[in-house]
Each structure stands twice: as C-alpha cells, then as structure tokens.
Amino acid sequence: MIQVFNEPPQGLQVAPHEPRILAAGHQIGVREIKFGEVHDKDGLMLALGAGLALPGAFGRNWDALYDVLTDPDRTPPRLALLLCDYADFRRRHPHLSQELEATLLDAQRSAAEQGRDLWLLLEEPDSDPKAW
C-alpha cells in the first residue's frame, strides 16, 4: 500500500494506521475533527472550530471555513485534517456532508495551487477504501 503522505493529497482518503505518527515523520501538522456528536450545521461549525483551534470570531459558515483552510498565515504549509467518525456523519447528514466536502475539496485544490498540501483523511476503524 502506498503511504498516503508520499503522494500529493487526492480528495478524501482513508487515513493510514497511526496517522499522527506518520504525519510527524513527514513534518505534517494534524488537526482532528470529531463528527460523532454533530447533529446540525451549528454543531458541525463548532466541531470544525474546535478541531482547527479557531478563535470565537470564526464566521461559522462555508466561506469562513474555506478562508481559514487556504490562509497561509493560519495553517501550516502541510496540513492533514483527520475526520473522525465521518462515515457515520455522512450517512446521518448527506446534504450537510455534501456541502462540507465541496468546501474541503475546493480548499484542497486552492492549497495545491499555492504549493501547499491539505490532506483530508477519514479515520474509520473498519473503513472500506473503495467506498470513498
């Protein structure tokens, strides 16, 4: 299996075993977003704010999230978002997850255009990589 951090980020990817240790070895910052208790957009924005350690002034909307993820002054040049319990969130909230994924993928493309890396890693113990 190809080690995910040896290649440029490519959409949503299944997280490797021990992603934090592997990321540290590649000098990649990791931010963990926990989706287990998210039930609506407000909860999602709070989870993102907590996981990204954003100030209370964070706009809590898709544009503000995109701005944070593409701002070289706010995020490291090599960043991995570890999306925990995302498959269950996606099943429970398909419309909300669709909006989130569009924003994350746009931010990933923009980061790449800036010469930066933004990995979007799904941490699911029994995940099927082909499902993504």
UniProtKB/TrEMBL annotation:
<dbReference type="InterPro" id="IPR035905">
    <property type="entry name" value="Barstar-like_sf"/>
</dbReference>
<dbReference type="Pfam" id="PF01337">
    <property type="entry name" value="Barstar"/>
</dbReference>
<protein>
    <submittedName>
        <fullName>Barstar family protein</fullName>
    </submittedName>
</protein>
<dbReference type="InterPro" id="IPR000468">
    <property type="entry name" value="Barstar"/>
</dbReference>
<feature type="domain" description="Barstar (barnase inhibitor)">
    <location>
        <begin position="30"/>
        <end position="122"/>
    </location>
</feature>
<comment type="similarity">
    <text>Belongs to the barstar family.</text>
</comment>
